[in-house]
Every structure is written in C-alpha cells, then in structure tokens.
Amino acid sequence: MLHAQAADLGKGEVGKVGKVTAVHAVTLGPPWLPWETTSSCLEPTLPARRIDLHTHSSASDGTTPPAQLMREAREAGLDVVALTDHDTTAGWQDAERALPAGLSLVRGSELSCSRGGISLHLLAYLFDPDEPDFAAVRRTLRDSRVARAQRMVDLLAADGHPVTWEQVRALAGGTVGRPHIAQALMAHGLVDSVNDAFMPDWIGTRGRYWVAKAELDVVDGVRLVVGAGGVAVFAHPGASKRGRIVGDDVIALMAAAGLAGLEVDHVDHDESERAHLRALAAELGLLTTGSSDFHGDNKEVRLGAHLTSEASYDEIVARATGLPVLAA
Ligand code: AMP
Ligand code: FE
Ligand code: FE
Ligand code: ZN
C-alpha cells in the first residue's frame, strides 16, 4: 500500500544498457594483486574483495555524478560497488558507461518505505527495472517527492525565507530530497551545514518546515523487489539516532515476505545496535551487509567506510534473477 499524494513530474528510467559485460558468478580481484600467504601454510589466498553496497550519486541526494562515483570507487580500492539512489535507477546508465577496469557494479535503488508511521529505507539490488509494478511504484514515490518539496519551499517562503522551487529543482539532478532544500538554505546563509538543516527548526523529521513524503509499506516493498527478481536488504534498520526505528517483529514480517538481509555495519549504528542486528539476522536466517551510504559532500562518510563480506555478496548475486552484476 502506498501512502502517497502524487504530483505530475517523473523522471525517465534507464533499462538494461551499456557496453559492459554481465557477470553472473563470483568475480575475483585483479590477478596482478600480490597473493597473501600465512605463516602456517604456503597455499596462496586471494585478498578479500572490497565490497560497498550502498552509495548515492547526484541522481538522488549525493553530490557526485554517477560516472565520477564509479571512478572514485575504484580509486578508493573497491572491487564491487552498488549504486542505490533513492527511488530511482536514473544513474545506472552513466555509471555503466564509466565503469573502470576492475570494478563490478551492482545496480540497485533505495526505496522510501514505512511501517506504523516510521520511515524506513529498503535497499533493492539487481531487480528488473522494467518490471511494471515496481517501476510504477518508484515513479509514484518520485512524483510525491516533487509535490512534497514544493510544499516545503512554500512553507519556507511563507515565513519570508528566500528559497525558491526553481533553485531547489536546479540543485536536484534527479530524485529531489531534503538535502537539496538543505543546500538551498545553506546558499542563502540560513544554515551552516546540511546537517544543521536537519534540525527541528528547519526540515528535520516533524520539524517546522518538514512535510511527509509518500512511502511504501515496507513488507509490500520486499514483495515488490522480490517480484521483480531483485534482492531486498533492510538499510540501517537500527539507526535510532535518525529517528524512530521498527521492532524486531516488523523485521520478522519482512523476513517472512522474502527479505534477504540486514545492513548491520553502517555509520549510524553503534556497537550494541550492530550486535543486536547480527544476532537477529542469525535467528531469522538473514545475511548481513556493511556499506558506506556515501552521499558525496552531503555527508562526511567516505566510500568503503564499511564493507560487505564476500559470502554475503555472493549470496545476493546468487539470489538475484532480475539483472546480472556488470564488470568492464
Ligand atoms: P528525504 O528522503 O527527502 O526525506 O531526505 C532524507 C535524506 O536526507 C536521507 O536519505 C539522507 O541522505 C539525508 N539526511 C537525513 N538526515 C540527515 C542529516 N542529519 N544530515 C545530513 N543529511 C541527512
Ligand atoms: Fe539520502
Ligand atoms: Fe537510507
Ligand atoms: Zn542511503
């Protein structure tokens, strides 16, 4: 069920394009990397692949264009990166075209969801972008974001703040979000940082100029992702400092609907939250991931700040039927 009010602006999505090679199975690291040996055994072992499964580009609320993000990912030493812009696949094509040698691309998206009035994010990997039900929902989510951002600008303007919709629209290269309004507030000298804009006096959740956006019920979201051949992972499920989080009962419902895993290693989780989520994942038979949730200059976290194990990554790739991983 979508909790939404729709506006009339949508962005086109790209399909399965590009001159890159599909990689269905395990991709090993570059063969020229030195092999590691252990003192007890002379068997060579390949260094572990460095895998970051959650990044945002300027196709949503990151500041790095998708092509540049691919280059920076390789420079940061990553072997695998997922592009997971909010509610869109619009950055995929540019990312594919710019994919550097040695980097594998997992095409994904991060869906705006909710349960019981709590906003949640669901990572979707390797789904078929043309599957009509899921494609229609992404479009509705994006459309709602436009109407909602316009209302937030109207509220700011009504209080005499000189932010305009044209300015916010120009700052958003794709899916519009609160970070674009935050940048506009910064440009007018009204706040010092994106983070400051997320305080209750401005556009923080339930704050003075905050307006709700459409969100998909998170269990329906899991079903939609799986129905499009994708793999669903609950993004930062324990990020209590961002706002209210759902209980383990909701995660169990998501697991029963086909959720594959929980994003455990994330900058917004403390050690006790990670320990709890790891135990819960083991109990529910879910895999665990770790990722940066890179947003360019909109957040301080860097690419590769947290990584996913090779075992979890290989399981995600094996479960996906919508799209292959791409490698140059
Ligand atoms: P929206 O999806 O438009 O409601 O905006 C939420 C987005 O804002 C998240 O995906 C984050 O990228 C970003 N965000 C949330 N809280 C903060 C914060 N305190 N500082 C900077 N960015 C934030
Ligand atoms: Fe974001
Ligand atoms: Fe998120
Ligand atoms: Zn994210």
Based on the model shown, name its key terms:
328 residues, alpha/beta, DNA polymerase, domain 1, 11-stranded mixed β-sheet, two-stranded antiparallel ribbon, 10 helices, binds adenosine monophosphate, binds fe (iii) ion, binds zinc ion
Q: In words, what does this structure look like?
A:
- This protein is of the alpha/beta class and 328 residues long.
- The chain has a domain at 141-197: Orthogonal Bundle (DNA polymerase, domain 1).
- The chain has 10 helices and 13 strands.
- The protein has helices at 66-75, 92-97, 132-158, 165-171, 178-187, 194-197, 218-227, 248-257, 271-284, 310-319, and strands spanning 2-3, 21-23, 36-38, 41-45, 51-52, 80-86, 104-115, 118-125, 215-217, 231-234, 261-265, 287-290, 325-327.
- Strands 1, 2, 5, 6, 7, 8, 9, 10, 11, 12 and 13 form an 11-stranded mixed beta sheet that branches. The chain has a two-stranded antiparallel ribbon with strand order 3-4.
- Helix 4 crosses helix 5 (178-187) and helix 7 runs parallel beside helix 8.
- The longest helix is centred in the middle third of the chain and has 27 residues, at 132-158.
- The chain is globular.
- Mean pLDDT is 90; it is low at 4-19 and 24-39.
- Bound molecules: adenosine monophosphate, fe (iii) ion (2 copies) and zinc ion.
- One fe (iii) ion is lined by residues 110, 121, 235-236.
